Amino acid sequence: MRRYTLTGRQDPRLILGNDEDLRPGKGEIAVDLRAASLNYRDLIVSRNVEGVVPLSDGAGVIAGIGEGVEGHAIGDRVVLGFMPHWVEGDITEAKKASSLGGQGMDGVLRERIIVPASGVVRIPEPMSFEAAATLPCAGVTAWAALFERRPVQPGETVLLLGTGGVSIFALQLAKMAGARVIITSSSDEKLARARALGADECINYRQVPDWENEVLRLTDGKGADLAVDVGGPATLNKTLMAVRFGGRISLMGVLTGYDGPINTGLILGKRITLQGIYVGPVSSLRALAKTGIVPQIDHVYPFEEAEAAYEALQGAGHFGKLVIRIGG
Ligand SMILES: NC(=O)c1ccc[n+]([C@@H]2O[C@H](COP(=O)([O-])OP(=O)(O)OC[C@H]3O[C@@H](n4cnc5c(N)ncnc54)[C@H](OP(=O)(O)O)[C@@H]3O)[C@@H](O)[C@H]2O)c1
What is the dihedral of CA 19, 279, 172, 184, to 10 degrees? Predict the structure, then answer.
């Protein structure tokens, strides 16, 4: 059974090797993976971690069932939760520690994995393995950003930044919920694709660096009801300007780093609810998979070309998701 591990360097990032015979223990299943998808997180992990099997998001077929497992059968098509131990309820440190494909926890860029049986969700027909493999991180994060605490309401305005994995899922889900979507991008071509998916208003943030003012103009000076901030320190103050009094921001992004001066006066003065997002539980993955969403896949790479998928992610030319096909 082949698997990649991280070198901790950039060139090459990955080394191909073999797993020992992997068998499920009590409460576990073996999954023969058919597809994995990449997230921005995987770039960060690849720069900082060595010797671990990378990638968190995978889908495949159940190939073995451990003692005491019920409700699963060999041959079932399943997608893995990003944190297989976070099945439902609130997050805890222990649940977070089960995040696949990070420091101290092997991930899915391999042909077989052993996971807790409670950490997977059946893939609905006719969703492909490639499509299912995009859901665990980007899809569930977008779901959490829009629906977890106070679900977005029909007619509300949602602001999205960029056209990466999380933002495009958020665009599709916000439109399903009947919201009006304003989205930004560095690329007019990507904005045209976003419009084709239902985006109501598009702003090129390179051409319009003070895009927060454009959001205010597009909302009659009021601001968006909810913003999904994937940028972090360099975008958050602008996002605070762009949401309405009493509005909300779901913050999950680190595209511009982890630290920076934040205008706390705007948070309290506008009574903005700023909610931190760290993916979500298996229960959200199950709910998302049932929506019938069609994930936007930019490109599928063969297992042997996994390095090329990382290069593409780093190049940021993609729209939506990058996927690696495994086995089969
Ligand atoms: N906390 C969590 O649970 C969680 C979960 C998932 C993701 N994240 C974070 O969310 C962020 C996005 O993840 P992803 O996987 O969706 O990334 P991705 O697919 O790599 O998307 C990156 C895209 O973001 C846009 N972008 C980059 N810099 C920007 C900026 N300064 N302002 C606005 N847009 C910008 C670009 O879109 P254009 O090319 O259109 O300009 C770029 O293509 C990352 O920081 C990731 O770590 C966090």
Answer: -110
Strand partners, 199: none
What is the CATH code for 149-276? 3.40.50.720
pLDDT in tens, 260-289: 999 999 999 999 999 999 999 999 999 999
Which CATH superfamily does the domain covering 2-137+280-325 fall into? Medium-chain alcohol dehydrogenases, catalytic domain (3.90.180.10)
Q: Which residue has the tokens 């060999």?
A: 74
Q: Which amino acid is at 139?
A: G
Distance from residue 253's CA to the centre of ligand 1 (Å): 6
Q: Which residues line ligand 1 (CB under 6 A)?
A: 39-41, 137-138, 141, 161-166, 184-187, 190, 205, 230-231, 234-235, 252-256, 277-279, 313, 316
Closest CA to 266 of 234, 231, 286, 238: 238
